[in-house]
Amino acid sequence: MNLFDVYPLNDVTITKAKGSYVWDSEGNQYLDLYGGHAVISIGHTHPHWVRRIEEQLEKIAFYSNSIQNPLQGELAKKLGEVSGKGDYNLFLCNSGAEANENALKMASFHTGRKKIVAFSKAFHGRTSLAVAATDNKNYVAPVNETNNVDFLPFNDEEALAVHFAKHGKEIAAVIIEGIQGVGGINVASESFLQLIRSLCDKYGAVYIADAVQCGYGRSGKFFSHDFAGVNADIYSMAKGMGNGFPIGGIIIAPHIKPKHFQLGTTFGGNHLACAAAMAVLEVMKEEKLMGNAVMTGKYLRDELNAIPEVQNVRGRGLMIGFDVPQEIAALKKNLLTNQKIFTGEAKPNVIRLLPSLALKKKDAEQFIDAIKEEIEAFAVAAE
Ligand SMILES: Cc1ncc(COP(=O)(O)O)c(C=O)c1O
């Protein structure tokens, strides 16, 4: 049997990982500023995370959600503490798409309405409703097409206000990434998020903060949406939550009440996933990783801003993007091939940095030296 060919792949086989580094099958060491697509939050194979999972594995890995699982309650308590949203309620699932799918469904159950507002360049996942709210026709199969989702321009306050004035009473939810990831690292403005809050309040709609990529401390705050100083009704989470162990979830504000059987899952919140997620929160707190994301992120953005060929540096904390001019569009590839540094990308020429939140200053310095060297090599080649 062959694999179904869904992506073009880098020709690298990673066999070992530690902290912000990975090694390939030939023993080459790479600096990982991609974090396996923003998933590695506390660092690869963190010893506390490994120990927590191993200890849990010796006891029990899985049982169905038909029994009490105190680990879920412990995780909810810890998450409430670290996120500052202790009065929200947690529903656990397995991925980002599933988290958004459940968030949108919950908003529709709660309001009894069908319409969803999403934004240009949004990515919310690949399941049916999540993909319908994703602004990329290539991902949407005919069966996912719906006229229940309206796309509005990102950060356009007037367009949003006009849309609500016309359709407010039909809108179940507004879903927005605090910082768009796949769309190319675009930060939602604070006033835009505040307007979403006030329009949702006025018209009885649900504000869903997609924090799958920009959440879990990556921006320097637990949720990047929190920079706006207003709360969402539902936050969706996944990537950084398990540091690579598959787990996702939504936290739901207390005014949205649960009704039995509206949500459910077989694997979500299993014992092993909860152990991994607890380890992540413990390490984030113990090692003050949100503070590190602020500091190391600022260093990277300041240094990148000082390089003339690097354009439009943006983002928050350790979620950073910048544009690369067409003449040096091979920069990302050269960083990987020549400098052994993994970075992320967005179309057309955006480099995305999504490293572990424990990235050290010396690793950030290594990247800055490497990018300068590669840019210089383009200049020499052009002479
Ligand atoms: C903002 C955002 N939402 C949702 C998803 C979907 O997450 P998953 O791939 O875990 O389903 C992603 C994945 O990249 C994402 O970046």
From TrEMBL:
Gene Ontology molecular functions: transaminase activity
Cofactor(s) demanded: pyridoxal 5'-phosphate
Matching Gene3D superfamilies: Aspartate Aminotransferase, domain 1, Type I PLP-dependent aspartate aminotransferase-like (Major domain)
Keyword entries, A-Z: Aminotransferase, Pyridoxal phosphate, Transferase
Pfam families per record: Aminotran_3
The keyword RNA-binding appears for this protein: no
Entry similarity comment: Belongs to the class-III pyridoxal-phosphate-dependent aminotransferase family.
Name by which UniProt lists this protein: Aspartate aminotransferase family protein
Organism: Niabella yanshanensis
Organism lineage string: Bacteria, Pseudomonadati, Bacteroidota, Chitinophagia, Chitinophagales
